[in-house]
Amino acid sequence: MMIRPYEHEDEKSWLRCRVLALLDTAYYDNVLNAKKQYDKPSIELVAAQGDEIIGLIDLELDGQPGEVCSDPQRRGAMIRNLAVHPDHRRKGIGRLLLVEALERARAAGMQYLEAWTRDDQWVRDWYMGTGFKQSDSYLQVYVEGDENLKGMIDSKVPHLRPVSVFAHYTGSDKAYIVSKFSRVHETSRFYLDLAELK
User: Fold this and answer.
1) Residue 6 and which of 44, 93, 96, 124 are 20 to 30 A apart at CA?
2) For the CA atoms of the chain, what is the radius of gyration?
C-alpha cells in the first residue's frame, strides 16, 4: 500500500472506494458519479494497493482566511472527503492519509484543518482520537412528502409542489426538530490547530 497524489486515472476506483466507505454511515446516500474538481487549491491523496484505491482524502485550501474554512483570521484546509474502503479499515490507513495531508497543508501555509461530519459516533471518536476538537454544530434535516410538507414549505412557482426537502436548522429548539422529522443528523465541526502539532 502506498500513499500518493490522486491521478485522473484513479477516478473509477476512487468513486467505488468512497461509495463503499459511506454505506454504513450517516452519509449512505451521498453518492457521486464523478469526482469533484475544487475551485480553490487542493490536496488530493489516495491510499493505493496496486490499481485499487483503498483510502482517500481531499482537502480544499483557503487562499485567504475564510474563503473555504470558517475562521476569518487564519488560513485553513477543509477536509472534503476522507474515506477508507470497509475491507481495509482498522489498519491505520485513515491516519496515514491524514498525516500526509496535514504535512502538505502545513507546507502550503495552512494554519488549521477543518472537517464537518454527521452523527456517527465512531467517526467523531476517530477525529477526537487524532487530535481534532469539536466546536459547533447544526442539524441537517431531510423532510419527506409523508411528513406533511404542505403549508410548511411552499413553492412560489405555480404547480410546483415540494415532495422532499434537505434543510439546515441552526435554531435552538433541536429537540422539537428531532421529534418532528424522521431523518435528522447533528452535523459537527471539528478542527485541528497545526501550530499545536510537533
Assistant:
1) 124
2) 19
Average pLDDT, the chain: 94
Q: Tell me the pLDDT tens digit for each residue of 20-58.
A: 999 999 999 999 999 999 999 999 999 999 999 999 999
Q: Cβ neighbours of residue 142 under 8 Å, at least 6 residues apart? A: 164, 165, 166, 181, 182, 183, 184
d(C-alpha 198, C-alpha 180), whole Å: 46
Cα→Cα distances 185→5, 138, 167, 172, 178, Å = 32, 8, 11, 15, 9
* Segment 78-130, tens digit of pLDDT: 999 999 999 999 999 999 999 999 999 999 999 999 999 999 999 999 999 99
Pairing of strands 76-84, 52-61: antiparallel
Distance between alpha carbon 194 and the CA centroid of its chain, in Å? 19
- Where exactly does CATH 3.40.630.30 map onto the chain? 2-135+189-196
For residue 94, give the H/E element and its range.
helix 93-107
Matching residue, cell 483557503:
62
